[in-house]
Specification:
mainly beta; elongated; five-stranded antiparallel β-sheet; disordered N terminus; Type Iii Antifreeze Protein Isoform Hplc 12; SH3 type barrels
Length: 236
């Protein structure tokens, strides 16, 4: 029995001297890989350092064994990579025997945005009773969001919206204040001169929208932008 123990000790001692034998302490720890990815993200986007941000690291394969890097690890984003939602962050070793891998991370940033207070039908003329403020993960809003209720009220909803769904600028349009065939005032600007004349609208028009008009005197067709006063401004 004593002889067997002695032989095992000799074998282990011999392994310590054999080049190329890698022990657990020679592997790069998974924690160090995750930390590199996290610190890289925080440096890339300062918004992730706020109290409203959450970074949840994904799991690496427990069987993953990477050689301990002799230089500090580096983080990087893949081509076209984002910093929000379910993403991957690259981590690499750049010493004489380089390696790299991608680390999964769930990144959430919460912000107070305008959402539907109830089921809203397409074409609804929004009032303050139709909407409310709620904290929403921006990763779920790839098409934008609205933070001020006053920016939504008075506008027309272009699609049906479920309760709690966030409003985006693309969902809203200003109501028409000019109807096709309506008599309008055409405001023509040339340099510092302004001339007003009677006209007729050839299109429906909301504030800021470009529509066609016809000069009732000369019968000339023009294009202009509807202003908040209901005039059609034509720049010459």
């Amino acid at each position: 029995m004593l002889s067997t123990i002695k032989n095992c000790v000799l074998i282990l001692a011999g392994l310590c001297l054999v080049p190329g034998v890698v022990f657990a302490e020679d592997y790069q720890s998974h924690d160090s890989i995750h930390d590199t990815a996290r610190h890289f993200l925080l440096a890339q986007d300062p918004a992730l350092q706020s109290d409203t941000a959450r970074l949840i690291r994904g799991k690496l394969d427990s069987r993953l064994r990477l050689r301990q890097c002799s230089t500090p690890l580096e983080g990087f984003l893949p081509a076209g990579g984002r910093t929000l939602g379910k993403i991957t962050v690259g981590v690499r070793c750049t010493d004489s025997k380089p390696w790299s891998l991608f680390v999964p991370i769930q990144v959430s940033v919460f912000r107070d945005v305008v959402v539907a207070a109830e089921l809203l039908a397409r074409g609804s003329d929004l009032t303050s009773a139709d909407v409310r403020i709620a904290s929403v993960d921006l990763a779920e809003l790839p098409h934008g969001y609205i933070t001020d209720i006053s920016d939504a009220t008075g506008q027309i909803l272009k699609r049906r919206l479920l309760p709690g769904a966030a409003l985006t600028p693309a969902m809203l349009e200003l109501p028409n204040i000019i109807k096709r065939g309506q008599r309008v005032t055409i405001l023509v600007r040339t340099g510092r001169m302004e001339v007003r004349m009677a006209g007729k609208a050839l299109d429906h028009g909301a504030v800021g929208k470009r529509i066609g008009v016809i000069n009732l005197s000369s019968k000339q067709k023009l294009e202009g932008v509807v202003n908040a006063s209901g005039e059609v401004m034509v720049q010459i």
